[in-house]
Task: inverse folding
């Protein structure tokens, strides 16, 4: 956000060129970089952006960071062009959560908009379990207070910009999910109409996954992440060179094609994570000590995937298969299929008992509705619970539409199970009017 | 704005591909095209967009248009995905002014945002003089009512999107001028805190130019504009071919380079309108029966300028000079300079009496501050008031920074005056602490 | 190719914007459009380019075209900037084949380069069977004469530009296949060292497929093809709308994803033609009276595929499935798999006799090496020879790497066969050192 | 140039991403980087490309370089895919000049094309004066031998690729200047038909400028240039910050707008070098110890100019004026004009004796034709010969079309002369049929 030759950025990603380009367009110097909290779901690009622009990094006093220029307390103010940015300490999601209120100094005293980080979302509020079970309730109480005593009192007409929209409200068009105000949230966000007691109860029931490999992000966001100019670019590898890299036991293939293509043909032992999912699901399942090798649908996808993986701390992508899976097969290397499954066939086989259905979605999705007699293991726990699965029957994985199911199926396949993936997932099942049960039934 | 496979667009420009691309990205069909009023400052692209997408055109019942699918009254509702769009008849700026309120049907009854057309701007409201002097006061009264009884009652937390941001809130970043809410306007927009009496008085004093060539837009927006596929593309012309076109008396050169470059060298009788200004100022000075020939800084500017000119109804750009003014001179065609003037020299010459200063800005700018002893003629009236200017002394034109002054200077030069243009304009004068007087002094 | 403000284009494609952009960059008017012959493998864009630029169309006198400006005889000359372009009548590939020799008038008398159309290729020469069996030998004789008496006599140092590189020698880098000279061809092209007798014999043995649906191109290239501005753009279709279109019996789905993805999941009865193959193979198998519906991997592929199909005369692409196969399945529509097959499994099943292998490559490929006991039916004849195939056993299709095999498999599947496609094809088979036999063994 | 997964690059520029992108498109590893000689007119990007791709650097044994992997002698061979690249030692232009002949190993023994560096150009040959006056004749003799005994004997049909087209024959279209063969050169290049005696005489008369600041390139190309990742990006500077930088006496402004715009208005003491000229002329006039500040027409020009300047060794661009000269003037900073002059006025003033004409072109241009009574000082010597110019009369600079004249005028203006620049230059003068004299007249 820029004004009169100065700009600030909230919670930048590590790939910071976009912010710089926007600032140049406005002929604005990036003066401040505000962090709403020590993020845990991506590597913040503050150091990267500071390195390239000289912007000063601001975050909460409540945690001792290994980097940064300003430790903010409640009410600290910064001038950016004719704007004033004021910090609002809003503990709850984390102890170091800050919101940033923007004023136009020409309309002094009237707050214009607020960056709410992971404190207040459109239609939702932040989770409170990340600081540990012992303070879960306390953090829930504090979030209630931060919301009702600080954020909501700014005024109904104040526009809100939650996390992940930092620096740009919108891609390029109006999405009704992306525009909101404090007043609109008060009128429509169900969590804001709860009493303190109800609110805390709701938060304590809000159990969410903590991807195991997300700890690297917490650590880097506390200490400061490596600069990307020091990270090696992945090597272009022809099939032969790619195959040679596999002999290293730390090597692991991630296949980012769609689950349909993976089902059709893939390199043995590769893990399926479709491209758009790679920015998140990789962190659920891939250890950081692996050297990642990529199989992509198209060569231009490589840089996209590498960017996604770096955003969540996987800097160790060592190479990619050039000219793709066709070249691999053409040169005589082994490829395999994963049995593709569609709902009609699954239904038939469930009836005849020739398949075991494994649902790897999150708990709350499972609770809302699942196929009778299916088994539930959350994707993030799958690797540790393989012994709960039968080895004598075809295991068919499922999720919402087939993406996460493909990840799970590829893990099972690596581990020697007979496996299929339901393309279409629970969505397709439901759309064909096949029955679901919920957890209370 | 799209939701669940359907989209609507408000007041599209004639170059509609951007809307279509955005819709395709969302896999959404453009279902409705809403016009906030019969626009007078650009050619609306409703027919163009309908031709390419099949979207249905909606506008006010209060005027009989020559095209369109729905004549809306107050309170008509349309479904777009899970959104509902409701028309709000808000006469004042024009008799046919409509605002469009958007609801999310999942939060029924709670308005989410409103497209306010030229009724309510961020920090301003619409002008009321366009319907003629006889109804100026009446329209001002109606605008007051439309604002206070309709728009402002939607709720403080409702986000507003005024005209010209239709279909996209923002280019790509947050500008503090582009985000507002009804509550924020109520707190900061000075016109909204006026009493009815004060408001009407203010509007009646709000005299604004009506560019003479803007009538084509009014006409086309009433009857429907030609489709661009039937408009001929400008021809690439080398200097010789360009020179030949000049023999036609309807030919007129527009030079869209910066005023500095025009001052340095230009083709005799060409009119200077810098590129970004061409989307507006052309309509002040260029008759529609001219065949426009372009001189641009770079060949890639041609399509930008052609788009700008078509937006305001100039479809008759017949050619452009390829390889620019250098090629023109290299082949021996005549080029001329316009005396460049900077503030220091102007000040010296004003003291010694060797220059006549002509300020061509709008009346309100002149009133706020001008150079003592300068003459004021608004740019839009210049052609008709040439006999008020001296022919025996150097006339130096001025405006804010030099752009409009360049237009004026090029007109004077065509008409045989000795002329210079103040590069830097009143801005530079003021920044160098040279004195200004205002109209009351 | 342009010089001093003028340009010419040889054998343009129908999507002509690229030529226009190149000419604008050089500030050159496209003055002539040369056709090397009545092309039979793509729709020539001469009329399209003339419509947009006014360039004059030149082709051979030896055929009566339904359009065009100049009927060229041997030795006609045209001036383009400082270049001279001279026609060389070189019958053989067709009766109307022309080559175009370019001279720099500053080095008069010395030919610089020659556009050789389908007369002389790098390492090959044109086929001579297209004019019919009765004149096959005669045309072979004439090609020999055209080459040895006309083209090769231009001089060893003359650079050659065969068909399909018209207007641009190279994408953007030097490929050793793209640069050649007459002398280099004389030294390395095996067909140029044959005696007349050997040459004719070789040509008469050179049997090549004539895709049945390529006749439209011959017709349009004789009479003039429709302008693209009159061709309707395909509609964006959500799953429901897409499904509705299928009820029309003229509707046919082409799925342009890779064969792996098609194998994993596809819409029943859709034909698999991978994107890059669609520019050619569509013409082998898809009748022109079909209304084509597209399933693409990504939404940005649609315009590429539409361009490819229009190049070969399929203007009837009526729509595409938006958001792809996932959306289709999610909404409960049926999807199916095609059994994916890899070489190891195929080998095993061939041994146990549980599969019938169908090789659909061209005759000459089959002759060079195929799997023992496989059956050969050329892809272009498959639809007419379905009754030669067994219906009681799994038919596995194969080709070079899996693309054409996928087309064949999708045709068989539509016709009720049990079918699989060998991903990797004969390439993978051979690379794994599995045995091939050739036709003489 | 790539083949089968391997590629080589000849004489890369420092901005190497283009080569890498082309290689990735072909899925090729850059294996070798060939230098044709120690270049003196740009900084070679070999080290840069090696750093990013691991390609091995190859250059001549005849000079001891401070970097590189292979010291080549005549006839060394390298394999790249199915290609073979053979070095040909061709001293003459420099002692370390090499040509690189490419063979297709499938056509063994037949050379396909040759990269001729600065040894043989289309229509010209290399200069021989760079090694010093004492060996000028010797080097001319050696160049004759290298051409006639080595390059020309490769065969008439061998295509040639001279320096500066390395890695890409063409931008994107066929230019008749860019395609040639040894045979075509033998038939059309006037220097190749000279006897040894005539050839040497011609070379010894071929006096060319040696831009004084080009020595950095020689040095860096001998020792190895700094990597760009260690070069600081220029700072975005608003007028105030820009003005502050000027107080440093090492600061120097380069204004890269067109000469017309510079004439209209510019910052005092700035040097005019139009954008496309900056890649060469900067080296004639700007010392390396200056800290360069840029004024560009558009913000997107900055990176182009920075790239151009880095190519010739100016890594010290410390900042650029954001929002350009308008912003500078608007904030009250001084701007000045340079009197623009057109031929008609010049002619008039020459007759009345009120102007002194200074022609700053190269000697050979002056010799071919200049305005009677004009003075000649080559641009590269201007700074050292200022005392030869009159200070009491307007000095009008001229060149071909106005670009170099603008550079000269800006230098004179900095040094206190009364100065104008002839826009249009000698081209316009001549095109208007005004008389020129040549040196022998």
Result:
């Amino acid at each position: 956000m820029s004004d009169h030759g100065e700009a600030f950025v909230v919670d930048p990603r590590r790939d910071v060129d976009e912010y710089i380009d926007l600032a140049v367009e406005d002929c604005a110097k990036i003066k401040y970089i505000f962090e709403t909290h020590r993020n845990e779901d991506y590597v913040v690009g503050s150091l990267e952006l500071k390195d390239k622009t000289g912007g000063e990094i601001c975050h909460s006093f409540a945690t001792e960071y290994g980097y940064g220029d300003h430790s903010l307390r409640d009410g600290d103010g910064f001038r950016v062009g004719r704007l004033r940015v004021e910090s609002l300490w809003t503990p709850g999601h984390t102890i170091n959560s800050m919101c940033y209120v923007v004023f136009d100094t020409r309309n002094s005293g009237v707050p214009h908009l607020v960056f709410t980080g992971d404190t207040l979302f459109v239609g939702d509020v932040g989770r409170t379990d990340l600081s540990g079970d012992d303070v879960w309730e306390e953090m829930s109480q504090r979030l209630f207070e931060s919301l009702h005593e600080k954020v909501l009192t700014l005024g109904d007409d104040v526009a809100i910009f939650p996390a992940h929209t930092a620096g740009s409200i919108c891609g390029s068009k109006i999405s009704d999910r992306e525009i909101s105000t404090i007043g609109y949230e008060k009128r429509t966000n169900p969590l804001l109409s709860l009493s303190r007691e109800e609110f805390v109860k709701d938060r304590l029931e809000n159990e969410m996954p903590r991807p195991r490999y997300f700890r690297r992000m917490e650590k880097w966001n506390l200490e400061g992440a490596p600069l990307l100019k020091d990270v090696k670019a992945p090597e272009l590898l022809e099939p032969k060179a790619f195959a040679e890299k596999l002999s290293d036991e730390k090597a692991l293939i991630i296949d980012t094609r769609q689950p349909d293509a993976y089902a059709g043909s893939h390199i043995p032992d590769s893990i399926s994570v479709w491209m758009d999912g790679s920015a998140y699901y990789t962190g659920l399942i891939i250890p950081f000590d692996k050297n990642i090798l990529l199989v992509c649908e198209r060569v231009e996808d490589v840089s996209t995937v590498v960017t996604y993986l770096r955003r969540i701390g996987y800097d160790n992508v060592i190479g990619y298969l050039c000219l793709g899976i066709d070249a691999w097969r053409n040169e005589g290397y082994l490829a395999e299929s994963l049995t593709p499954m569609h709902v009609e066939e699954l239904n038939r086989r469930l009836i005849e008992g020739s398949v075991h259905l494994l649902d790897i979605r999150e708990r709350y999705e499972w609770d809302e509705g699942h196929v009778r007699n299916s088994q539930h293991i959350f994707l993030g726990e799958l690797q540790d619970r393989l012994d709960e699965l039968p080895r004598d029957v075809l295991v068919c994985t499922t999720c919402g539409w087939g993406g996460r199911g493909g990840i799970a199926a590829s893990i099972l396949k690596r581990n020697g199970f007979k496996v299929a993936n339901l393309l279409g997932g629970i969505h397709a099942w439901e759309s064909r009017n096949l029955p679901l049960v919920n957890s209370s039934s």
